[in-house]
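For anyone still unconvinced, we reproduce a single protein record, the chain in one-letter code, the fold tokenised, and leave readers to judge:
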Amino acid sequence: MLGPVILAASRSDKMRRLISAAPVTKPVVDRFIPGETVEQVVPIIKDLTGKGLEVTMDVVGEDITTPEQSYAARDAYLELIGRLKELGLGTKAEMSVKLSMFGQALEGGHELALANVRPVVEAAAAIGTTVTLDAEDHTTLDSMFAIHEELRKDFPQTGCVIQAYLFRTEADARRLAGSGSRVRLVKGAYKEPAEVAYQQKAETDKAYVRILKILMEGEGYPMIGSHDPRLISIAQELARTAGRKLDEYEFQMLYGIRSDEHVRLAAEGHRMRVYTAYGTDWYGYFMRRLAEKPANLLFFARSILTKG
């Protein structure tokens, strides 16, 4: 399987330098990451929302090594919120954050990440929108869920992400499916050991359906993070069975992947949110997109062969 190999490469400084220096890389990266600055992505936000879509914005960058970098990450999100305020989109433009970018892995990182993310959540609430805490590798999740619980005391609309390939996730879903919760379910995009995660796609898919059923039958707001046509159909059926209206759940897909499906679902009346990342530190995000789906890797490989 190529996925684990690519994920290992995402942590390699040598591979980072090699891929970043390749002339073909930037045009391919642009498919998934449409800009490096707020100014570059504002037209993208306008275009997507003008088509009846919604967005969740992610400032990419995870492997920070100093508190100063975590403060810069916080400030980057506050700058984004300033521009979103001008656009007046409300919950049509929310944000996703990775707590590693806010200092979670540093010494005293739990408290540092909470201190950095709180003003972002406060500023988002002030302009009528929300923040979702992304899930990272399994060693970070207890801290993420604790920060999520703390933030929800004052900002109950704060969302979080759970990953179907982890054994723990069914229990997490039951705990999180209460009234007012917002939970995005994804398959998972980190290299996890067999002791904590399913290693086969078929097992992950089965777990995804079980967990989604828990969320649909709960009292919260499920966010279905998948490009898989079969899982999307199953999600629609589970929503109908649970008696959910079209505005009581949403689909989420990545910018640059299955864009025609984004528009189709929105045209059918579904809430369809496009996960849109931007920033200069794109390498880790880009490599996980390659690992998630063979078609993404083939797209990159063909570009290298034809343009390299």
Notes: The mean pLDDT is 88. Residues 33 and 60 are 9 Å apart (CA to CA). The first strand starts at residue 54 and ends at 59. Residues 67-87 form the longest helix (21 residues).
